[in-house]
Amino acid sequence: MNFIKRYKFFIVTICILGIITIVNRNLGLKALSIAGYSFKEMALVIPPVFILLGLLDVWVPRELMVKYMGEGSGIKGILLSIFIGSAAAGPLYGAFPVAAVFMKKGVKFSNILIFIGAWSTTKIPMFLFEISSLGSRFAITRLLIDIPGIIIIAYILYYIVSKDEVRKIYNNAENL
C-alpha cells in the first residue's frame, strides 16, 4: 500500500498512457518513445552529476565554500556563482543536486540562486552557439542583460523569501 501511495503519479501516468495507446496506437507509441528518450537522456546525465557531487562533497571543505561563497563572500561569491553556473554542462535539472550540496556546504542563498540562474541562461557553449548563429552583437547584448538580471532577481528573492523558509530549504537539503 505504501508503494502505491509513493508511486501513484507514475502509476496513473502509465494507466493514462495505456488508455491513449488503446484509443490511438500511433499517439501512444509516440508518447512512449518520447518518454523513453527522456529517460535515456536523464540516465546519461544524472550519474556523472552525482559522481562530481560526491567528489565536491568530499574534496572541498565546508570552510572553503563558506569563505568564497558564504554569507560574507560579497562580490567574489557572486562572480564564482556565475562562473560555476556558466561553466556547467548538462540540462537545468542537473543544477538542483549541485545547489543542494552547496546548501550543505554553507553557500549563501542568493549565491545559490545566482548559480541556478547562470546555469540556465549563461552557459558558455550556448554563448558560443549564439555568436556563431545569431552574431556576436546579439550574444554579448543578451549576456550583458542576463547577468545583471540574474543578480537582481536573486537578491529580490533573497529579501522576499523569509529567513524561516530559507532555513527550511537548507534543512531539507541536509536531509537528502
TrEMBL record:
<comment type="similarity">
    <text>Belongs to the UPF0718 family.</text>
</comment>
<feature type="transmembrane region" description="Helical">
    <location>
        <begin position="143"/>
        <end position="161"/>
    </location>
</feature>
<protein>
    <submittedName>
        <fullName>Permease</fullName>
    </submittedName>
</protein>
<keyword id="KW-0472">Membrane</keyword>
<feature type="transmembrane region" description="Helical">
    <location>
        <begin position="109"/>
        <end position="131"/>
    </location>
</feature>
<keyword id="KW-0812">Transmembrane</keyword>
<dbReference type="InterPro" id="IPR005524">
    <property type="entry name" value="DUF318"/>
</dbReference>
<feature type="transmembrane region" description="Helical">
    <location>
        <begin position="43"/>
        <end position="60"/>
    </location>
</feature>
<dbReference type="Pfam" id="PF03773">
    <property type="entry name" value="ArsP_1"/>
</dbReference>
<keyword id="KW-1133">Transmembrane helix</keyword>
<feature type="transmembrane region" description="Helical">
    <location>
        <begin position="80"/>
        <end position="103"/>
    </location>
</feature>
<keyword id="KW-1003">Cell membrane</keyword>
<dbReference type="GO" id="GO:0005886">
    <property type="term" value="C:plasma membrane"/>
</dbReference>
<feature type="transmembrane region" description="Helical">
    <location>
        <begin position="7"/>
        <end position="23"/>
    </location>
</feature>
